[in-house]
Amino acid sequence: MAKMHVKMTVNGGEVEALAEPRTLLIHFLREQLSLTGPHVGCDTSHCGACTVDLDGKSVKSCTVFVAQANGASVTTIEGIANADGTLHVLQEMFREHHGLQCGFCTPGMITRAYRLLQENPNPTETEIRYGISGNLCRCTGYQNIVKAIRAAADQLSGKKEAAE
After folding, report:
1. How many Å apart are CA 92 and CA 123, to the nearest integer?
2. Level-2 CATH architecture, domain 4-79
3. pLDDT bucket at 162, cuts 50 / 70 / 90
4. What is the pLDDT of residues 92-139, one digit of tens each?
5. Looking at domain 89-163, does it have CATH number 1.10.150.120?
6. Is there a contact between 152 and 117 (Cβ–Cβ < 8 Å)?
7. Which residues are within 8 A (CB) of 92 and not within 5 positions of it... i.e. 6 or more apart?
8. Using N-to-C axis directions, what is the helix angle for 89-96 and 106-119, rounded to 10°?
């Protein structure tokens, strides 16, 4: 199959490459850009391990062709950390509140939670559970994931209030 020229912004930087249009975004990110944070989990879009932010929306990158992402802005777990390399408050809260065990779902879970907190800066526990319901975790039971997201929301809203 003929390759197409693909250009997009990934984690704040412009990337260009040749790819088959039917290449899944997850494979493009992992194999051509060496961004291995998003994981290939189920290959059926059920688990959410491949979740990335695409033009301001959480998507499962195993359901998006690279041709569909051409010209888009993509953020992976690698792009969520602060510019100085320190952890984003959400990543720090996952660490502090033990929101992970094996870590396989964690990149997709944090990436989804990142968008959730932009959509709803002060979610209730129910809203958090609903907001991450497309991301499966087989280890944690979700209790500490929800605590971590809630703690991040509290810290982020405190930072916004302090800045004003």
Report:
1. 18
2. Roll (3.10)
3. low
4. 999 999 999 999 999 999 999 999 999 999 999 999 999 999 999 998
5. yes
6. yes
7. 152
8. 130
